[in-house]
Amino acid sequence: MREDYEVIIGLEVHAELSTKTKIYCSCTTEFGGDPNTHCCPICTGMPGVLPVLNEKVVEYAVKMGIATNCEIAKFSKQDRKNYFYPDLPKAFQTSQYDLPLCEHGYVEISVNGKNKKIGITRIHIEEDAGKLIHDAYTGDTLVDMNRCAVPLIEIVSEPDIRNADEAIAYMQALKSTLEYLEICDCKMQEGSLRCDVNLSVRKKGETKFGTRTETKNLNSFKAIARSIEFETNRQIKELENGGTIYQETRRWDDDKGVGYAMRSKEDAHDYRYFPEPDLAPIILSEEYVEKMKAEIPEMQFARKQRYINEYSLPEYDADQITSSKYMADFFEKAEAKCKNAKIVSNWLMGDISRKINESEMNDIRDVKFTAEDLGELIILIDKGTISSAIAKKVFDEMFETGKKPEDIVKEKGLVQITDENAIKEIVVKVIGENPQSVADYKAGKDKAIGFIVGQVMKASKGKANPGIVNKLIIEELNDK
Amino acid sequence: MYELTLHEIRDKIKNKEVKIIDVVNDIYSRIDKVEPKIEAYVSFTKETAIKRANELQEKLDNGEDIGPLGGVPIAIKDNICIDGTKTTCSSKMLENFVAPYNATVINKLVEAGAIIIGKTNMDEFAMGSSTATSYFKNTKNPWNLERVPGGSSGGSAAVVSSDMAYASLGSDTGGSIRQPASYCSVVGMKPTYGTVSRFGLIAFASSLDQIGPFTKDVEDMAIMLNAITGKDKMDTTSVDIEYPDYTKALDKDIKGMTIGIPTKFLGEGLNQEVKQRFEEAIEVYKSLGANIKEIDLDYAKYALATYYIISTAEASSNLARFDGIKYGHRAEDFEDLIDLYKKSRTEGFGTEVKRRIMLGTYVLSSGYYDAYYKRAGQVRTLIIEDFKKAFKDVDVIALPTAPNVSFKFGEKTENPLEMYLEDIFTVPVNIAGLPALSIPCGFAETSKMPVGLQLIGNLFEEEKILSVAHAFEKNTEHHNMKPNI
C-alpha cells in the first residue's frame, strides 16, 4: 500500500445468536437438518401469522452491549425492512431501524503492541433469511427456510479501522466476547459469524471521507484480510489513474482472490422501513440491565490474568490461549488431567493450531479428540512410555481418527524401549555395520554420532529411548 | 327455525327440543334456497359441520356441557384461517390457498361449541365498502338485491341478515363490520383493539385490524364476545386484562348515563334521511332517562386521510408476501425472478388492492416518509387525545354508522374516493383502537334501506356499549324486521 494514502474501514458484523429457538416462533435454531424441517407457519410467513419476540434474544443482545461498553436503550422498537427475495418469506426482514437496543460502545484492540479503541455505533437485533439452493442438474432454484428467523445481532463499528491487521484484531475481540458470553457459536465456516467491510481511501491529510464500497458476507479472517488488501489497492489504483470510486456493493471471491461489483447505489433498494405494528416496543428497566450486568461471566482479560497467576503461563501464551473461549476451556481440561500447563499450552499453540488451520475446521471444537486425551498424551510422554518423536505420530493419529492415545500406542506397539540390554543389542549391531562412522568419530568428527543415533532409532522403529541410545553409543564407541 | 336468534336456538338444543343435526340441515336447506339470490358464501364446510353436529349431540346426550355456543351454526369471513380449509380473502391470489393452521378465534369458537358452516365473501383482502371488489362474485343486499351489502365483511353481514347463519365473524379495519351491519340491518361490533386475538386473521393493516361478530340481536353479541375475547400468547398485541361476562351488562339501567354527540363532525355529507333516523334514536335515549351532551372531536375530520396513509402503508408490507413463490397465484410464463413477481402480482391482485399497495408503497418511500407516514402517526395521537378528552364527560358516543344507506351496484364502486367517504364515521374508531357497535335504527324514507346507529365506547368499555344498545333494542322493533326474500 502507498504511504501517502489512508484507508478508512468500518465493519458490519452479523452474529447468529445461539438461542434454542428462533426469534419469533418456537422452531429450533439447530444448524443442518433436512431442508424445510426446522420451520412452521410463523417462520415461513404464512398468511395471518404473528410474531412473538423470544426474550432470550434481547437478553443476549443486551449482554453483548454491556460487554462492549454500549449504552443500553430503555426504549427500543423493531421495524420492518421491506424487500422482495425468495429467501425472505414475509417479504420484509424484522430488524431495528432508528432505535436499536445498544449504542455508543467500543472495544479495545492491540496491534503490534499498540492499543486502540474501535468505536461501536450500534448493536441491534434482527432475523436471518433462508437459503437458496441452485440445482445445477435441473436448473431450478429451491428455498430452504430452516435458517429463516434465526436470531442475529448486527454490530456496526465506527469507521475507526485503518488496515487489515486492525480489522482482524477487532473481529478477534468480537469473536472472543461472543464466545465468553456464550451467545454465538462463532462458526465462521457455517456462517454463524460473518462480516461486511465498508472501505474508502483518501490522501493523508484530507479531512473528507472518500466514496466507500461495501464488500459483503466475508466468512473467514483470511477472506476479510485479503479482501481489504484487494479493495484498498483497487481504489488507490483507480484514483491514481484518474478514475472514480462508485458507491457500490461488492462480492469477494476467496478462491480467485478477487472482488467484484454486485450493484451500484442507483439500483439500491428503498427498504421503506417503518415500525413493526405486530410487535410492542421493547421497554427495559434499570433493574433488568443491572441483572444482565451481574450475569456477565469471566471474560478474556480476567481469564488471561488468572492464567498468568494460577498456571504461571507467560503473558504471550495466556493471551493466545484465552483469545478463544473454547481453546481456553480445552486448555483447562487438559491441564487438569496432566498438571503440566506450559506443555499443554505448547501443544495448543503449536501442533494443534497448525493442524486446525490446515484443515477445514472452524476451531478447536471440531477436533476429534478430547482435552483429556491431550492430557493423557502428555502423561505418556512424561512417564517415558513414549518418546516425543513417537508422540508426534500418536498425535497425528489422534487428530485423524479421534482415537485415545493409549489405544494407539497399544495397537501400534509404540511403547518406548527403555531396556538397556535390548537397546545395546541394536547399538552393537549398527556400529558393527558402520565402520566408516566409527572411524570418523575416532578422527574427532563428533557429528558421526548423529548418524549412528539415527540408524539406531530407525532400527528400533523410533521406539528406543533417545537418552539411553545416546548414552550407550558413546559408551560403545569409547570402548572401541 | 333458521329465523331464531343464536340464544334461542342454543337453548332449544340444550333443552333437547331440537337435534343439532336438524339445526345444521335446516340452515343448509335455507342456504340452498336463499344463497343463489344473495351469493354471500365463498365456500362451505358441510362435511365437518355434519360430523361435528353428531359428535356434539353425542356429548349432549351423554350429559356433557357442550359450551355457550353448543351446536350453533356460525359463518366465518374468508380472511380468517381454518386448518385444512381454503382461505381466499376473496382474491384470485389465494383462490386455492389452504390454511395450514387454525386462527385463535376458530379454536375459541370450536371450544365454545360452535359449528362452522362456511366462509363468507368479502372485498378482496378486506379493501372496500361494498364487497364488490371480491374476485369471485357480488354479494347482494338481502333488503334489495340491486344494492350492495356494504363491506368489506359484506358476506358475513348478509348471511346473518338473511338467516343463512345464526351469527358470523367479520373483521373491521376502518368500518368493515359496522358499515355492512348498518346496510343489512344486523348488529355488528368491532371490539377494543387487542381484546380479540388477530392470530390467523390475514392482515390488511395490523395496527387497525380487529375481528368482531355479526349477530341478530345485542344479547347474541354479548354471548359471542364471551366466546372470542381474551389474551392470546400468540398475539403480543392482545391485552391481558380480566375479561368480564359480557351478558351481565345487558340489563343494566341506562338512566343517568351520558351519551355524547359530536354535532360539528356530523355536519357535512350526512344524508337527511339517515339524519332523521339518527335523531329519532337520540329521542328514544332521552325518553329512557339518558343525558345527551354535545361534544367536540376536532381532529376526527382528519381521520379518513390518516387512515388511508396508515392502512395502505401497513397493507403494502403485509401483502408483499403474496409473491408467487411459496403459495398463492403464480404466473405461468415469466422471464426471470422480477418478472415472476410482477406478473404473479399483476394477475393475482384486483384493482383496489393494487391501488392501495401503490399508495402505501409511496407514503413509505424514502423522502416521503416524514411528510406522510410520520405525520399520520402524529395526527393519530391527536385523535386518540380527542376521544380521551370526550370520554371524561360521556359514557358512550353516538353517531350514524355510515353517512348514507346502501348504494346500488356500480353507483360508487367506480369512484374510489366517494366510496372511501362511506367510512368517515367508522374510521376514527379504528384509529383510536376503541370499541364500537352498529345496531339497526330503522329505514330511510325513500329507499326503504336500513340505517345503523353507531355506539362508541372508551377502551375496554364494551359493557357500557352493550347496556346502551340493549336498552335501545328493548324499546324498539327495528331488530325484528326481516328482509323479504
Question: What keywords describe this structure?
Answer:
heterodimer, A: 480 residues, alpha+beta, Arc Repressor Mutant, subunit A, 3 domains, 9-stranded mixed beta sheet, 20% strand, B: 485 residues, alpha/beta, 38% helix
Q: Could you characterize what this model shows?
A:
The complex is a heterodimer of chains A (480) and B (485). Chain A has 480 residues and is of the alpha+beta class. Chain A has three domains: 286 residues, no CATH class; 113 residues, no CATH class; 60 residues, Arc Repressor Mutant, subunit A (Orthogonal Bundle). Chain A has 15 helices and 16 strands. Chain A has a nine-stranded mixed beta sheet. Chain A has a three-stranded antiparallel beta sheet with strand order 5-4-15, with no helix packed on it. In chain A, a hairpin with a 4-residue loop joins strand 13 and strand 14. The longest helix of chain A has 20 residues. Chain A is elongated, with a radius of gyration of 29 Å. The relative contact order of chain A is 0.10. The mean pLDDT of chain A is 91. Chain B has 485 residues and is α/β, with parallel strands linked by helices. Chain B has a domain of 245 residues: Amidase signature (AS) domain (Amidase signature (AS) enzymes). Chain B has an eleven-stranded mixed beta sheet, with helices on both faces. In chain B, a hairpin with a 6-residue loop joins strand 10 and strand 11. In chain B, helix 5 packs parallel to helix 6, helix 7 runs antiparallel to helix 16 and helix 10 packs across helix 12. The longest helix of chain B has 21 residues. The relative contact order of chain B is 0.14. At the A-B interface, loops of A face helix 10 of B.
